[in-house]
Fold this protein.
Amino acid sequence: MSTSPKITVATTWLDGCSGCHMSFLDMDERLIELVQQVDIVYSPLVDTKTLPDHVDVGILEGSISSEDDLEKAHAFRKHCKILVSLGDCAVNGNVPAMRNHFKLADVVNHAYRDTVAVQPQTPTRGVPALLSVVKPIHGVVGVDVFVPGCPPSADAIWYVLSELIAGRTPDPSSVTRFGA
Amino acid sequence: MPPPAKQPNVRVVTLTIDGRDLSAREDETIIEVCRENQIPIPSLCYLEGLSVWGACRLCLVELAGQGRLLAACSTRVTEGMQIQTNTEKLQRYRRTIVELLFAERNHVCSVCVSNGHCELQYMAQKCGVDHVRVPYRQASYPVDSSHEMFRLDHDRCILCTRCVRVCDEIEGAHTWDVMGRGTECRVITDMAQPWGESDTCTSCGKCVQVCPTGALVKQGTSVGEMVKDQHFLPILARRRHAQ
Ligand code: SF4
Ligand code: SF4
Ligand code: SF4
């Protein structure tokens, strides 16, 4: 095992499709190289249930759409030294924010009542309350690195992580763009 | 207004652009001289072959001795000009302009038919716009799908008026116009009627080809097919003005 100090990384998804995490996994064999250098201390991809107090790099996928998203974003900001906004939903709201053009009640009714044939009902138990306006991550907490793309390619994520591991500030515009 | 025909006997002026000594005809604009000399200047409303509009302000340049920034598309060269095209200040302004365009209407590139073939999207990447620092306006804009061949999505329109100018100056139909002020401003067909009911539109498709974004597209085209061809424009423009 390598003895060089590893940086700690936490990731989570908010209102997104998890495609950015899938793109992360698309790094394929480079993941092996990556685990020599980083410890994933919290993520939907690992089993840890609580976010550690001090994390080097936090990665957020998805936009702020519910009370739960809001809480997670604040927790990540509080505990992570560098916060990365990963993917278009995180960076600009993208598809989840398309509901901003309608009243929240109309959106919920359309999804759970108007277009449902059997047992139309609005879920209230065990689900976080939705916010009326969907916002990008930096709409609620400060973000250090923005990586647009839907999803950003595995190469783009690899580049950003490699730069961060090396202690440099990445320039994501050189490798990805909105809608990439 | 069509671009004025070049005069046969104009003087030549000398100037420097980014420290390079250049000469140019005195009836040329800064952007024309830059393009001839492979000096990149970003622009969205400017398009060779159409009249100058000067609206997007992306082609701003710095002129020595002038506190004010100048639009390269609408400023003619003069003797001894010293121009800078890519200073830190210009980069900052251009970045802000692009961000404001994204914040004004609704650009969801991932579900846009022009994704990957869009001048605004490309400009954002080139100017280093990896996020938008101002809040999105989130105003709703309509889509006009009434034309049997084309579609207009106001959400993607940046009001560059290329469509207005090409339809008037090259096709000669003058179907397009601009209506309203500020955030209410939008392009219209005829007297703000649905495009499909237009008496003047010849369905030539020139407006669709010159539109820099996904605002004007061909109906039923998939993302991969939505490549725009603007090569026809300078050729047609030259032929028109030669008549
Ligand atoms: S018009 Fe261009 S910038 Fe706007 S959503 Fe479509 S691809 Fe993105
Ligand atoms: S299709 Fe041709 S005639 Fe019709 S609006 Fe566009 S440019 Fe004008
Ligand atoms: S429809 Fe296209 S060409 Fe016309 S003003 Fe809007 S962005 Fe420009």
User: Anything to note?
Assistant: Strands of chain A lie at 7-13, 38-42, 55-61, 64-66, 80-86, 130-135, 145-147. Chain A touches chain B at residues 85, 88, 91-95, 97-98, 100-101, 133, 136, 138-139, 143, 146-148, 150, 171-173, 177-179 (CB under 8 Å). Chain A is about 30% helix and 20% strand.
